[in-house]
Amino acid sequence: MSQQARVDIVTGVLGRNHRTVEFPKNNGKQELMSEVFGKNVFGTREMSDRLPKPVFKTFSSQLKGGQTLDKVTADAIAHAAKVWALERGATHFTHWFQPLNDSTAEKHDSFLTLKTTFSNGLPDVTALETFSGSELLQSEPDASSFPSGGMRTTFEARGYTVWDTKSPMFLQEGPHGTMVLYIPSVFISYNGEALDEKSVLLRSSSVISKVALEILHLIEPIEDDVPRTKEIFTTLGTEQEYFLIDRALYALRPDLKTCGRTLIGGLPARHQQLEDHYFGKIPTRVLAAMSEIELELAKLGVPIKTRHNEVAPCQFEAAPIFEEAMLAVDHNLLTMDIMHRVAHKYKLKCLFHEKPFKGVNGSGKHCNWSLSTDRGDNLLSPTSTPETNYRFLLFLVACLKGVYDHGDLLRAGVASASNDHRLGAQEAPPGIISAFLGSELNEVLNAIEEGRPVNKVLAGTETTHMRVTGTTLDLKVATLPKLNRDMTDRNRTSPFAFTGNKFEFRAVGSKQSPSFPVTILNSAIASALMEIRDDLKKQKGDKAVASDEDMLVVIRKYITLTKNIRYEGDNYSDEWVQEAAKRGLPNIVKSPEAFQRLLTPKNKEMFMRLGVFTEPELESRYHILSEKYTKEIHIEAQTLVGMLIEHVLPAAFSYRRELSESAAFMKQISAESAPEMKWLSQLAPICTGLQDAAESLESVLAEAQHIEESFAAADHACTKVSPVIEKARLLTDQLEKLCADKYWPLPKYHELFSTL
């Protein structure tokens, strides 16, 4: 690898042919996205058209929990799905599931089957396409080859994938224009333990739905002309941040290829400090890729709403329309997959690592969470009178109570070696979990707690006894309309911020599946809702429904209990760290400590009481997360050693030789050699330091081979290996500035940032 390779790639981008895609047309006119939307999804509308009415009715009842799926119904659905898929060019089907590695898995099986009949005693083999109900309902991957945290061993290999009937089947493009039928599934072991992310998410969604429904039935009177709420849905919108860089330059960076982030590299003179990339003009190649990504996702029924430049150079974001949480998680994982595959077609590499480039903003996956009824009511919508909207207030204080009681769990849910580089780095929430409500909602809660009328603060003046609502702003320009202002401001430093009718869990990492963090959030709030339900029952007594006063008593209690979790200021500040300590809120800086919080008696009791995790399943998550953390840091250390020995030090030595020869020549002709000698004197200690760092990394990695216990290994990686990686980086970044460009073999930040 040489500097010339970098130059060739950077200049080659200018002459590269751009990919063009023909968008779907109907009678010569481009189809609307609404017409394309869901065309590759075997959803309820398609099933309704293709299934006999009794079969579809039985399936609909099963979706609502009314009955289990029988063989006759499964066979009918499988046949209809097969016909639909074959009509569109499908050759294979696969159970698509989410093992415990923040990714998805699939094993393709052909529809092709051989049928043998006998005529006059001779076999007659016929090839045909078949797909049975049993093939639809379950499959059998190897359960010992996925992370299991000790629940499975090599000789305990049997596991099952089972169709998640609430997530529709869909088609994805295979090779040469063919299609593959995807069957969203859960993944369990032979003994029934959850070996995936989806099973526990479904459990948590079920338990929060059940207890939320019980609360609604305690506070809502039965009316003859109004249908009663029968189901509550957890809703989710996942804003996905990501980086795009030229794939050819990516191929020259061993750290990006192996670790997903740059282990070395100094900032260029210009990066994000002018604040001109955020919401700026989207580069042409990137916009073309985005358009194709959105087209492919529309076919899969994934509702991408927003696209834009993010703060850092080469950083972008896509945000969907909110959906039921289970489906939103499926769609987020599909989004990441489609982004990755389409980017390759444009000679781009999509990076989901939380911090691929030191010194510029990293990426998150902001999870916008709420609760909705089967009548379409958002339970976290404050309406124009939140101070008397007791239903809203009950669910609001339940969210606060869940976060207050189990903030350490929420921190554990977003912990990873990669997210540690982002959390608290002046671009993402720190390791302290708090909640932001905004000044007006805070005033509502304070007024209720203190038993006084609500004060409304408007434009710096205080007016008493006024209802809290959103306001308008006069922009002082006659041609501009008045601006409707939301009830709350946005606090981007808060890890759990109320944003109008939902909470935004901002601490989730960009490359992780949202399933585990949302499972924890669902569970924590479900536990709080159970406490509120029990208090409401006691307060209600023999009355048919709880009165306003009954609800106020309960609301006031939980406002008082959760005051410490509410914070309206700058979560990045040192003052907040000190204040949080006074409030008794945990500040969990590194992941190994966060993982341990999964197994505290309080948190274990909560999960098992709710039935979200069994004890073995929870312990397995702890071991999987700890081991993954350790392995990722060890991989980074090994990669960095290779880069130092194979690329960085040889470049330095070559440059030193040139300087030495130049200094010797200067002396030979009696010329001044001080500049060369000064440069050499600066290079020498850096080279020595890098050699020592490489040896230190090899030494601490050798130590790690003898550590077996999960926490000890993760703690060693955190406290012994990571500091040496960082030390080597500091030295290498100094060397990059000193070394002549013609000797530097690795693409530099300014090249990675400027070739879109």
TrEMBL record:
Transmembrane segment boundaries: none
Coiled-coil boundaries: none
Residues in GS catalytic domain copies: 197-648
Alphabetical GO biological process terms: glutamine biosynthetic process
Domain GS beta-grasp: 91-192
Molecular function terms, GO-annotated: glutamine synthetase activity
Family annotation (SMART domains): Gln-synt_C (SM01230)
Family named by the database record: Belongs to the glutamine synthetase family.
UniProt name for this protein: Glutamine synthetase
